[in-house]
Write a structure and sequence with these properties.
The relative contact order is 0.08. The longest helix has 22 residues. By secondary structure, the chain is an alpha+beta fold. The radius of gyration is 28 Å and the shape is globular. The strands form eleven sheets. Strands 30-37-36-33-34-35 form a six-stranded mixed beta sheet. The two termini are 39 Å apart. Helix 3 crosses helix 5. A hairpin with a 2-residue loop joins strand 21 and strand 22. It contains 31 helices and 37 strands. The N terminus is likely disordered. It folds into four domains: 277 residues, no CATH class; 101 residues, no CATH class; 97 residues; 142 residues, 3-Layer(aba) Sandwich (Glutaredoxin), CATH 3.40.30.
Length: 869
């Protein structure tokens, strides 16, 4: 894997500026920043920027103004100036006290050390906490080694666990000891920045070869950017389980805070951040130049161009760019396929682009609402999607380095487990409060907050339990006392504090209930459209449509009278609920609604008169195949609405996963589902074993009061299962302390064999995917042999975490690594150590399926193969 270099001239310039001890040495940049700052304060109001009694130095004041010039609106209105001033001081303190502080270039200190925000997390006091914990641990190390050591500390504190898409703050992640990749990387970036080390979260919005996304970290040391898996320490930098997947990615980027003038390719520049393209640091890339034209063939300036990756059965917008005055835009991406969707003023057009093959592409905006309304169902379009091939490069790691890292890894696991052992078991929770036992177990490190809340309200426990019942698992883990108390003491019977995935950081229900005169509140209750009118009249919308939409608290919206569309929607629902009006933001469509006379009514802030949208019915027909009897939403198909020329996914989520589960053809679309009148796109796809996709798209219309019926066509690979290699079924494994052959454990016939990387994210995903297909595996009835690399791994494996694996699973140990070596050799795997490795073979030594590393949907892929045998 190649190292990442900042240009020598820029680096030298930045070093010089850093040595001078200034925050912004470039006069022109300083002037631009000052103008941006003045404009922001003028727009938001001076009450939100108060530096009196803060006693800032000139550099600290300039850094604070830099943050305010570019931070999201929510940060300005929801946190006091003193909070950001304290964090600025801590940044300069780290720069002064850490031995590498003098070596960090001004550019990188400004954009990748000083900013507090990493993602869309709630902001907290983590910089101070992390600095105090880590300073003595790393101060005698080189900058390079400090990065490695900080990641070991991160692993002591946090390990991977999937959850919903809301990002916990670093201290909340610390308290719960788990996080998904976005939270782990936010946590690690916060720790690195706390120590004065430039760090940034790298993000692939969607993989191209499998259905998921990932986030990790880049940290700067000694003139280079290096990457690492957050909370997943390796012996060296530029190494992680994702080396191979990253080499197959189409797009990887990071958001640099503010107006960043670095050497990387800029994909998007907004008033808050600069999105830069990092794909070429991990994978071969190629550039395609696009020209967007209108129906008459004239170039379209300012057209929106969405670059879409097929993932989770939709074409997901990974990057958005805008055309120049000549209608041109270009992108560098991995050597594979994207769907490119261009739009402006309701007109749109799209085309597949093959990077590495196509050089120039012209897209014509030849569709709009008028053309879309000309027929009920449009012809189906087929799209074959080819992802990049694997081209990972791995840094050298000796056996001694690996053994030492494994030793540390095990110790760090024990440190973290000693902490998580203090969390409540089901039995302990039932002894405290049987009715709340489920909530207490899920609250993990936040257990005392929940225990105390229930204890304070024994006189009205049902209301307290009702509030807890509205919370997600993640809410239970991080909700503070003041939010619980605010919802309990509020007069309203609308108990839920949550509207969507927003941060709930300030109490608001009692505040909002008192914010309006009694007569006004009664008018809102009598007719909620009066609240719509009040918001339109009194709350300004940020005119910057490209601004980062971190959801403001309702208190921040009320005090500033300035917000964005997302926060306005949340504000309406929170005000309505605070006044006793049942309201919601519909999870599927994203529409804001209130209930009146037992029916949900739509809210349209732009409309002169409020009216609920007319609806029709969509019915999908499907004929079961031997491979697939009931297609799943997000696995096999999705539906998007065409809104002003762009796509808006219908979000049929169930459960608390990053992407939903439970919605399928038979339970939602077989008998018909209700949709608003409009134009939609049905997307289907079959993910092939090589990562490619056989996709289709079809436009259709929903008309008022009528049913639109169309087939749900799922394409399949026409090729029969073929032999792709060989594997000796007489190979020896260790089971229950005895050396036995694989054949002796499987009997004659087909079987699945895997070598696991215990505790690693790719292995966890693979086993959970197999759990989802338990019924199919048990109906097949053939053995699934799961191998650990050592007895230590076997002891570390948490069987309870994978309690739903098929009963056909058996466990053994690949003691000398011979099974792993044989699979890698016979399958001609480029990476001989990346786990997990899966094969589907028979006892005549024929292999018909192979998979390595990170593959979402593995259970279904295996099922599709063995159903053809």
């Amino acid at each position: 894997m190649k190292r990442l270099f900042i240009s020598a001239s820029l680096f030298a310039l930045c070093l010089t500026a850093s040595a001078q001890g200034t925050f912004i040495s470039n006069a022109a940049y300083r002037t631009t920043m000052q103008q941006q700052f003045n404009e922001r304060i003028k727009t938001v109001g001076k009450t939100f920027y108060n530096t009196s009694n803060l006693n800032l130095t000139a550099n600290e004041n300039q850094a604070l103004e830099f943050l305010y010039a570019y931070m999201p609106l929510a940060d300005i209105t929801d946190y006091p100036t003193s909070f950001f001033a304290d964090n600025v001081r801590l940044s300069f303190q780290a720069r002064k006290e850490m031995p590498w502080g003098k070596d960090v270039p001004e550019l990188l200190f400004r954009h990748f050390v000083v900013p507090i925000r990493v993602n869309n997390e709630a902001l907290d006091l983590s910089r101070s906490v992390f600095y105090n914990e880590l300073k003595n641990r790393v101060k005698h190390l080189s900058m390079h080694d400090a990065i490695l050591e900080i990641n070991h500390w991160c692993h002591e504190k946090v390990t991977y666990q999937p959850s919903d898409a809301r990002t916990s703050s670093p201290l909340q992640t610390l308290r719960t000891a788990t996080g998904r990749c976005g939270e782990e990387s936010t946590f690690a970036v916060a720790a690195l920045r706390a120590m004065g080390i430039p760090a940034r979260q790298v993000y692939t919005p969607r993989w191209a070869h499998t259905d998921d996304n990932h986030a990790w970290v880049e940290a700067w040391a000694d003139g280079k950017w290096w990457f690492l898996g957050a909370c997943e320490p390796e012996p060296v930098l530029n190494l992680g389980w994702f080396n191979a997947p990253a080499s197959r990615a189409m797009l990887m980027h990071t958001r640099a805070f503010g107006n960043y003038q670095g050497p990387e390719e800029v994909m998007l520049r907004t008033s808050n951040f600069t999105e830069i393209n990092l794909t070429s640091n991990y994978a071969p890339t190629a550039q395609v130049c696009f020209t967007i034209k209108d129906a008459n063939g004239s170039p379209v300036p300012g057209a929106r161009v969405d670059f879409k990756i097929y993932n989770y059965a939709e074409f997901y917008t990974a990057v958005t760019k805008y055309t120049d005055q000549q209608g041109h835009v270009s992108l560098s991406a991995g050597i594979g396929d994207l769907l490119v969707w261009a739009s402006k003023d309701g007109k749109y057009g799209y085309q597949k682009a093959s990077f590495g093959k196509d050089k120039t592409i012209t897209i014509q905006l030849n569709r709009d609402a008028q053309t879309d309304s000309k027929q009920l169902i449009f012809p189906e379009e087929t799209i074959d999607v080819v992802p990049p091939v694997e081209s990972a490069k791995m840094p050298y790691v000796s056996d001694e380095m690996r053994k030492e890292n494994n030793r540390r890894f095990a110790y760090e696991d024990s440190v973290r487990k000693a902490y998580t052992a203090t969390f409540l078991t089901k039995q302990q929770a039932e002894q405290i409060n049987p009715q709340a036992a489920e909530y207490l177990v899920k609250s993990r490190g936040n257990k005392q907050t929940i225990i105390d809340f229930l204890a304070r309200h024994k006189d009205n426990e049902q209301r307290a339990l009702g509030i807890l019942a509205t919370l997600t698992d993640k809410d239970l883990r991080d909700i503070p006392t003041e939010i619980l108390e605010d919802n309990f003491t509020a007069a309203t019977n609308q108990l839920s504090p949550r509207v969507e995935s927003e941060m709930i950081s300030l109490p608001f229900k009692n505040y909002l209930a008192k914010a309006f005169p009694a007569s006004t509140a009664n008018a809102f209750r009598k007719n909620p459209t009066a609240l719509v009118t009040w918001i339109n009249k009194n709350i300004r919308l940020n005119p910057d449509k490209k601004a980062l939409q971190i959801a403001q608290t309702p208190v921040g919206v009320m005090q500033s009278k300035l917000t964005d569309e997302r926060s306005r929607d949340i504000f309406f629902v929170d005000v309505a609920r605070s006044l006793g009006i049942e309201a919601r933001k519909d999870a599927v469509t994203g529409k804001v609604q209130y209930k009146k006379d037992g029916k949900w009514q739509d809210v349209k802030f732009e409309a002169k008169q409020q009216a609920t949208a007319p609806t029709g019915t969509l019915k999908l027909t499907y004929k079961a195949s031997p491979i697939l009897d009931d297609p799943k939403y997000y696995n096999h198909f999705t539906i998007s609405r065409i809104v002003n020329g762009t796509t808006q996914l219908m979000n049929f989520e169930e459960g608390q996963a990053d992407m939903g589960n439970g919605t399928c053809w038979s339970n939602t679309f077989k008998d018909g589902a209700t949709f608003d009148v409009g134009t939609y796109m049905l997307t289907t796809g079959t993910r092939l074993a090589n990562g490619g996709v056989l996709a289709t798209t079809r436009m259709f219309n929903i008309t008022e009061g009528k049913t639109t019926t169309l087939p749900l066509d799922i394409r399949y690979d026409a090729n029969e299962v073929s032999v792709i290699g060989q594997f000796n079924s007489e190979s020896i494994i260790n089971k229950d302390g005895k050396d036995v052959s694989i054949l002796s454990q499987t009997g004659r016939g087909y079987y699945i064999l895997a070598v696991l990387g215990v505790g690693q994210e790719p292995t966890n995903h693979a086993l959970h995917d197999i759990e989802k297909e338990r019924a199919a595996f048990e109906a097949w009835g053939r053995p699934v042999v799961l191998l650990f690399e050592s007895e230590a791994d076997a002891n570390k494996f948490q069987k309870d975490e994978f309690a739903s694996l098929p009963s056909t699973v058996q466990y053994a140990i690949d003691k000398d690594g011979s099974i792993r070596e044989q699979v890698a050799r016979e399958m001609k795997l480029q990476n001989k150590t990346q786990l997990p490795m899966f094969i589907l073979a028979d006892t005549f030594n024929r292999v018909v399926f192979s998979s390595q590393g990170y593959t979402i949907g593995l259970g279904e892929q295996l099922k599709n193969v063995f159903k053809k045998l």
